[in-house]
Design brief:
Blueprint lengths: L13 E11 L2 E11 L4 E5 L6 H8 L7 E6 L2 E2 L9 H4 L2 E4 L3 H4 L6 H11 L6 H12 L3 H4 L8 H13 L5 E5 L7 H18 L2 E6 L2 H7 L2 E4 L4
Parallel strand pairs: 3-8, 3-9, 6-7, 7-8
Antiparallel strand pairs: 1-2, 1-4, 4-5
Helix pairs in contact: 4-5, 4-7, 5-7, 7-8
The structure holds adenosine-5'-triphosphate.
């Protein structure tokens, strides 16, 4: 059966097999790491700073190319990464990074930021329904939606980044230290939003972080890096 064929719903949301990768050919930062996130499962990935968690999360989100190993999303093998990642695989993964200011286009209003993946995939007709629904779910009022990133706090911008990550209804959400820069109440609000989304859509989660207490509370299981 070709890899592009639809697999049964029970295929794991994410399978990373023997991933080796890095930035400088001589020194891999991730060596032969394997990790599976089952359909609908929430997995926490724990590890000290600099061990390669974010790099692995970026591989899972098809944003960084592995030197060797395989990535399968919902049973489909990824053949391309970054701009070469096929749209049907890319849109199945939502990603939230630690630093919203590096992830958000400073020229866009929060409303446009959230809606941007719908525009980019030719689904702008869904914006009038999805935008208010997502803004409410992350706790962003209308007054904030018309502002640009420099006019809002980090926590408000991260709320918009989470809404954007959910706008295409991905089957897998990758949260890379999503709450590391946030206060306790914003952290609780964003975690609750992810939980609600997962309950409603049966989505899987890979949550990267170094706060064991948060990850153990949030996830079905926690894996210490290097996993595998
Ligand atoms: N763009 C890059 N170019 C070169 N080296 C990089 C790059 N990004 C990360 N690295 C290096 O790769 C290693 C792993 O980094 P990574 O960000 O994956 O670790 P991490 O476990 O997520 O750390 P943290 O918890 O501090 O975010 C580090 O030594 C880092 O310096």
């Amino acid at each position: 059966m070709p890899d592009t064929a639809l697999e049964p719903a029970s295929a794991p949301a994410l399978e990373l097999r023997d991933i080796t990768t890095g930035y400088d050919r001589r020194v891999p930062v991730v060596r032969e790491v394997s990790l599976t996130v089952a359909d609908g499962e929430a997995v926490g990935l724990l590890g000290p700073s600099g061990c390669g968690k974010s790099t692995l999360a970026r591989v899972a989100a098809l944003l960084h190319r592995p030197w060797s190993g395989t990535v399968r999303l919902a049973g489909r093998t990824a053949r391309g990464f970054r701009h070469r990642a096929p749209r049907e695989l890319r849109t199945g993964v939502g990603v939230v990074f630690q630093q919203p200011r590096l992830a958000a286009d400073p020229r866009l209003t929060l409303a446009d930021l959230i809606a941007e993946p719908l525009r980019a995939t030719g689904r702008r007709a869904e914006i009038p329904e999805r935008l208010p629904e997502l803004a409410a779910s992350v706790g962003l009022g209308d007054d904030l939606l018309t502002r640009r990133p420099h006019e809002v706090s980090d926590g408000q911008l991260q709320r918009a980044c989470l809404a954007r990550a959910l706008v295409l209804r991905p089957g897998l959400l990758v949260c890379d230290e999503m709450t590391a820069m946030l206060d306790a109440s914003t952290t609780a609000a964003l975690v609750a939003t992810v939980e609600r989304y997962r309950r409603e859509h049966g989505a899987a989660l890979l949550a990267v972080g170094h706060d064991r207490v948060l990850l153990e509370r949030w996830c079905d299981r926690v894996v210490d890096f290097p996993a595998g």
